[in-house]
Amino acid sequence: MSTTKKGLMVMAGFFYLLTAIFTLTENQVATELCAPITAFLVFLILMSNLPGLGPHKFSTACMGMGFLVIDIYYIFRFFNHYIVNLEQYIEIVGIIYITPSFFFFLNETTFLIYKLKGRRRDLAHLFANSFAVAIIGFVFIYKYFSQVVGHIHNLRELIYLLLIFAAFNVAMFSLQTYHLVGVENLKKGTLMTTTAMLIYEIMDIQYIFTQAIGGVPDDYYADLVYMALLIFMTMGITIQVQKKYYFEFNGWSYSAPATRARFIVAIIAAIAAVIMVVVGFVTRSEASYIVIVAMAYIIMTYILKADSLNDELLEHEKRQNAMLEKKVEEQTRDLTKANEKLELLSSTDMLTGLYNRWYAGTYMKNLQEDQISGKKYAFFVIDLNHFKPINDTYGPEMGDKVLEEFGNRMRELPDDYTCFRMGGDEFLIIMKIRGDLENLEDAAENLRKLFNTPIKHNTYVFKLSASIGVSVYPQDGTDIEELLQYADTAMNYVKHGGNKDGYKFFNSGLVQIISTQNAIETRLKIAKPDRDFVLFYQPQVNAQTKEIIGAEVFIHFNGELEKVSPLEVIDAAEECGFMNILGEWIVNTAVRQIASWNEKYHKNMAVTLNISPLQLISAEYANVLNKITKELNYPTSMVTLDITNTVIMGASYSSKAAMIRLHEDGYMLSLNDFGGGDINLAFVQDCGIDSIKISRALVTNSVNDPRIKKLVKSIMAIAETLGMTVSAVGIETEVQSENMQSLGVNTLQGYYYGKPVKADAFEMMLK
Asked: Region 652-658: what's the mean pLDDT?
């Protein structure tokens, strides 16, 4: 609160106290001097609140005009009594003195209209209530007024009557305000102002009426009460501004019981008017006003009731529409989610979480339509190695776990990579190239490592790899379908090469190689072992005696594809599911042939069979071995199963269990290419390996490199410690043979002693 306002309030309180003292001591001069000062100070306090009243400025200004009129009368009275005789204006000023009811009427009307802004039904009900009661009350006031002063003959009497009506209306508005403000807002200042105004108007009705009938209404004690009421009105406004109170008005009920109660009250008023006519208290014309007002009130009540019902229906309809809109929105959202889910299902491989083959076609079509000219892309076609044995041996569930893990790894690749599962164990990765093409080597190497990193699941460890073919846009072409074929061609080259765990960038020279691979796959689809395959035998000799003590068996196509390497034949047979049939034929044919030669030439030769990963863990293959050896009475110790290092480092637990079973059945297990790659010596020791084959590179380099020679000696020492025999393969010269013999190698094998040949040529060696 400002200092100025506080000062005005202190001064107003001080002068009001003086006025009260002088009134009680009947000091008329002092009373009439202090009264206008007090009234003016209260007026100033009220006006000082206008800036903080916002939209209520006008209604409060109307109240202030009422205060100012009162103050003007007090000033006039003082001047008339003690300074200059103004008796000729006394009647006019007296009428002015009673006009505050008119300004208070404006104050209440504008205040209530603003508070009920936008609530036309409550506003209509407010005026209906106030005017109905005011008019009925006015009839009685008019009746009494006429009886006292006679009929209204001049403007003066009409003004008095209108002011009485205004005062009565203000009182009715004040009573209505109690309901609208509510008890919960009692302390907010509004009801203080309203109460003071109600009392003021009740007193004013009596004052106006007294003046109208020619009486002398001046009463210093009444003036003291009037000023107190003005102070209370001002205090209510000040509290409202100071506390910044704001609240909404209550409304009226338009329920059936409330409407019925209003109807009954109006009917009672109409009946009472008729009774008063009968007893002669009012005339028919006067009673007609009451009846008309009562009927109008009933009509207004039911109009408001109907309007309320209409609003309720509209509100209900809005709620229903909102509910329908919400349901439509929810259904639309659900439909959108369903469509998104369907789109996801249609474009995503559910096992790996990668995009599927269908979406790959859509993606590449969009890529082509988006005119990728000016950009660079690499297409990686990927095919897993050694996956089929896992799927066949451990079941589809284990195979799914492996594929799921690869999917997780690919989803963690950077945003430049878009990954697809094309079906089975085949994948496609499209990479946006942001730098130079030289970086592609690093990208391909990283993908190779992604696939050859072992997968661990529970107690199982699976070591797989991937054959990766790469084509580049626009270096290799601009048609995406052709680029995919090129990448697939490069992948097949790796797949059927010596090292499947690798990658190859497409070049035109691959076309002929791939055509050969395609011919192999076509041949295998219709192949029959007896017709389409032939076995080659390579002699194995005793390093000391140079006697042929065994033969390693190699599988070849019969006919124009005879030059295809045995490794390619086995890989292709495994890929197309032909290895079980072919493996059984190899065992039958090879063991029978060696057994036949042993009997014919009184030999004791052993047979060495290359065993694929799938055959190693196949119980069916072991059964075939046992069956043929028993049938021919061929010792199992004379059957050597040649196992590659890749097999050992693959699904370790399953490989180990299979090798232990074969070792327990008496078969000799030989580890191929020892020293040519990674090896787990503890694993070799535990799984029953009987013999190791020194790699070709060690055989060749140990002749001239002392360090390699020492390495071979170390291998010999390890083998002796583990109780294993040692073979050397790839012997091509006499020097190599003598070198290996000097190092203590047990068995020699290579072109120096004989190339792999068909059975008839090998038999000539035996002769």
From this structure: 69
Distance from C-alpha of 18 to C-alpha of 579, rounded to nearest angstrom? 125
Q: In whole angstroms, give the CA distance from residue 681 to residue 689.
A: 10
What is the 3 state secondary structure string of 16-46?
HHHHHHHHHCCCHHHHHHHHHHHHHHHHHHH
**Which H or E run includes 427?**
strand 426-433
Task: Dig out the tokens for 102 from the structure.
Answer: 């008119």
The alpha carbon of residue 562 and the mean position of all alpha carbons in its chain are separated, in whole angstroms, by 61
Nearest by Cα to 380 from 431, 453, 442, 449? 431
Pairing between β-strand 691-694 and β-strand 502-505 as defined by DSSP bridges: unpaired
Tokens of 644: 């590659």
Q: Which residues of 227-236 are buried (b: 16+ CB within 10 A; e: fewer)?
A: bbbbbbbbbb
Tokens linked to 535: 């076995």
* CB 321 within 8 Å of CB 329: no
Q: With contact defined as beta carbons under 8 Å apart, do 554 and 610 qualify?
A: yes
Rounded to two decimals, the pTM is: 0.47
Lookup: tokens for 429: 């990765």
CA distance 692 to 672: 6
What is the percentage of the chain residues whose pLDDT exceeds 70?
A: 92
pLDDT, tens only, 555-577: 999 988 888 888 888 878 887 88
427 backbone dihedrals φ, ψ, rounded to 5° = -135, 160
Using CA atoms, how far residue 203 sits from 46, 104, 217, in Å, is 22, 14, 11
Q: Give the Cα separation of 402 and 605 in Å (integer).
A: 42
Give dist(CA 508, CA 287) in Å, integer: 118
Partners of 692 in the beta sheet? 671, 726
d(CA 385, CA 764): 40
Helix (H, G, I), strand (E, B) or coil at 640: strand
- The residue whose two tokens read 């073919």 is 469
Amino acid at 689: I
Residue (of 187, 229, 224) closest to 66 by Cα position: 229
Whether 172 and 133 have beta carbons less than 8 Å apart is answered as yes
In the 8-state DSSP scheme, what is residue 248? P
Residue type (1 letter), 299: I
Tokens of 736: 């190599």
Band the pLDDT of 161: cuts 50, 70, 90.
confident
Q: Which residues of 504-538 are buried (b: 16+ CB within 10 A; e: fewer)?
A: bbbeeebeeebeebeebeebbeebebeeebbbbbb
Q: What are phi and psi of 503, to 5 degrees?
A: -140, 160
pLDDT digits (tens, 9 = 90+) for 499-556: 788 999 998 777 777 677 778 888 888 888 999 999 999 999 999 999 999 999 999 9
**pLDDT per residue over 4-17, tens digit each?**
778 888 898 888 89
